[in-house]
Amino acid sequence: MAFEIYNSLGKTKQTFEPLEPGKVRMYNCGPTVYGRAHIGNLRSFLFADLLRRWLEHLGYEVHQVMNITDVGHLVADEEEGEDKIEAQAKREGVDPYKIAREHEAQFHADLEALGVRKAWRYPRATDHVGEMLEMIDGLIEKGFAYQVGGNVYFDVSRFDRYGRLSGNRVEDLDAGARIEVNEEKRNPADFALWKEDAAHLMKWESRFGPDGFPGWHIECSAMARKHLGDRIDIHTGGEDNIFPHHECEIAQSECFTGAPFANYWMHAKFLQVDGGKMSKSLGNVYTVSDVVDRGYEPRVLRYSLLRGHYRQPLNFTWAVMDDSKKAIENLDRMFETLTRTAEGDEGAAAADAGAELVAAARAEFEAAMNDDLNVPRALAAVFTLRTQVNEGKLGATAAADGLAFLREVDDVLGVIRTEKIAGDDDAEIDALIAARKAARESKDWAESDRIRDELDARGILVEDGASGTTWRRR
After folding, report:
1. Strands of 61-66's sheet, edge to edge?
2. Is 11 part of a structural domain of the chain?
């Protein structure tokens, strides 16, 4: 089955076809490192990781680039105002580069905690100013940009496809309404490629003046071109990136190269918290540390943020986290049960029983993920198989195949504990479980209960099912 994805550019579901067979060039909008990423940001980054994992599952070599914005992103995503990193540096009274590097390191630590695979490249904006200036010069030479003093603007009237991604029409973007009035611009919707500001702390000398810095949009175009080439397969981000950021990227990239920029655009919806927006005033802007401090493993947060379809709004609550924790524990126990059954320690079914159940689950999981990364449908297939496993419908051979399937699922979703964490007393517990089993078989219920009580006192939860007995630590 072909991989179908919803392309925001054209707003239709399309069969994915890479520019080069077997290889995918993917650019993901990364963090602006003025503060720690919160769970809303993380949904977008986890979506990018899921997409990358699925593409690799399909056999593609993925060249994934996720940028680090460490200059040029102004507050409120507008053309005027302070740089987000400089504003934070002033609040803390430290150098903006220090702010950027500290939060960049924290970003990587958070991704590692969440099991996110490292991207092929993590380019910093400050390391690519030369490439930005090259593009700006080219856009001026080709008549798509113009200089006013030390500032350079892109002329949106020269690009007739401006607005195709977002649906915004240039004539509707009135100055004083959506866009702040700037008399230097030819058109209210024109956006800055380069800004001159002597007071700016992070600045570079160029032919436009001694104290300039890049606009936010040109950064991604320059970094994508540097590391992936003039054309890329997939560009992702949060839905808030569609306009103006991605719209502007398309305009400047395609005017500079004369070729289509990205073939597929994919955007993750906002994350809600308690049914509404995240707000510092409400105290619901959570980070990975907040989750861990409440006693949850990072993988529980990963599951919670991946459990819904990326194109649908997702609500975060602590009750949802509890449900996610239970769901993961169920998947862990499913893996343990399949392991015992495959080894011949559990289950009464014939060895080859249940092979068709595993095949059906795998087929449905694959079909769901190929359907624009439909995680809810994919998870439903896994949990249907879990019920069948608990009912003892799989024999040893089918269980072994089920284990292989569950490892495939985890390779994509990254939430299942497929390796048992050994404890110093595992052998003792296994012996007690075996003694309890013998007592039950001889109908010595008093001894069976005594052993269960002893295990309970040691923090061991024993569960008896159709496929046998399993245990786990509380």
Report:
1. 61-66, 23-28, 232-238, 262-268
2. no
**Encoding tokens for residue 235?**
């560009």
DSSP annotation of 469 reads E
List of residues 6+ apart from 378 with CB closer than 8 A? 364, 365, 368, 369, 409
Q: How far apart are CA 99 and CA 213, in angstroms?
A: 18
| All residues at 6 or more sequence positions from 264 whose CB lies less than 8 Å from its CB, including other chains | 5, 7, 9, 14, 16, 233, 234, 235
Per-residue pLDDT reduced to its tens digit, 259-309: 999 999 999 999 999 999 888 888 889 999 999 999 999 999 999 999 999
pLDDT for residue 171: 74
Alpha-carbon distances of 46 from 121, 267, 319, rounded to whole Å: 16, 12, 21
d(CA 358, CA 389): 10
Residues 154 and 177 in one domain: yes
**Tokens found for residue 240:** 């808030």
Task: Note whether 63 and 157 are same-domain residues.
Answer: yes
Inform me whether the pLDDT recorded for 352 exceeds 90: no
Distance between CA 334 and CA 341 in Å, rounded?
A: 10
- Token digits of residue 332: 């862990």
Domain with 63 in it: 19-268
Cα gap 226→134, rounded to integer Å: 11
Q: Tell me, yes or no, whether 360 and 261 share the same domain.
A: no
Q: Are 365 and 404 in contact (CB under 8 A)?
A: no
Are residues 295 and 258 part of one domain? no
Residues 256 and 344 in one domain: no
In whole angstroms, give the CA distance from residue 47 to residue 437: 44
Q: What letter does residue 76 receive in the DSSP assignment?
A: G
396-413 and 355-370 helices, crossing angle to 10°: 20
Does the pLDDT of residue 45 top 50, yes or no? yes
Asked if residue 153 lies in contact with residue 184, where contact means CB atoms within 8 angstroms, the answer is yes
